[in-house]
Amino acid sequence: MLKVRQIEAFRAVMREGSMVRAGAAMAITQPAVSYLIGSLETTVGFPLFSRQGGKLSPTPEAIQLMAEVDRVYEGLDEIESAARQIANHQRAAIRILITPSFSIGRIVNGIGRFAAGHPGLKLEIDVISRSAILHRIRSGQGDVGILSLPPDGDAETGTKLFDSEFVCVAASPGILDGRTHVGPQDLEGTPMVSLRKNGVVRPAVDKWFAKAGLVANHIIEVGDPRTAIELVRGGLGATIVSTFNVPDVRDLGLVAVPLAPSPEQIEVGVITSATQHPNRAVQALVEFLRLDNPL
């Protein structure tokens, strides 16, 4: 049976043109190379080299064999190249699922910077509902979900990125001018542009009003905080959103002030499947986002 060391010696002699130089290339002695070539000739059943005038010359059979050896080594080079690309996440694909609330801002910015640092990495990003994210992660149709924590069951592993608080946003001049904070009583009767009940912000806002014995005056429900902010920018009442979703409101003619007392914070994080081990690229992305958003 052929041995790898025999093939290495044969290839070295063919490339170097002598057993002495082949030995130097392999970091072994010339007699060791000669022994390996002799044992290879015994194994294959034909001579590989002849000496003519003190010069080592390959036989026609050796030239044929070398062509096959080169093909094998080219395949090994391709495998080595593929391994390097896999190690550098250049052959990986990550399916990222994000709720609308977190589809703008620093998390998506961080994903962009991660991708820029890993050329060849393929990303697929879908902005979908929380329930759809959980379904896709559980069914193996997504690799990373970005939403509020905790997830709803044991089928996902969550990694917290940061806490997000709440602010009230209104047009300026308006009801928030001069305020450092706003309470439920300050917003009693104010037309509210509200996020839908199936999210995480709206239940917290309703609970905040209820603790003060009040009910918010919800006049419009929207699914995206950016839509709520734009409606308020047009002069329609006020909205309460996560600080994560608030742009530099001064440039938009808006005022944003924190709520007092403050509702419970939203934990923003990343989830992956608890039953399917994530690939190295997914692990690297989650770690990058965690370090990019220190608690």
TrEMBL record:
State the name under which the record lists this protein. HTH lysR-type domain-containing protein
HTH lysR-type domain spans which residues?
2-59
Protein family according to the UniProt entry: Belongs to the LysR transcriptional regulatory family.
- Key word DNA-binding present in the record? yes
Under the heading Gene3D superfamilies, the entry gives:
3.40.190.290, Winged helix-like DNA-binding domain superfamily/Winged helix DNA-binding domain
Sample GO molecular function, one term:
DNA-binding transcription factor activity
* Biological process according to GO: positive regulation of gene expression
Keywords on record: DNA-binding, Transcription, Transcription regulation
The source organism is: Bordetella genomosp. 11
Q: Does the keyword Transcription regulation apply?
A: yes
Which Pfam families does the UniProt record give? Answer: HTH_1, LysR_substrate
CDD domains annotated for this entry?
PBP2_LTTR_substrate (cd05466)
Top-level taxon of the source organism: Bacteria
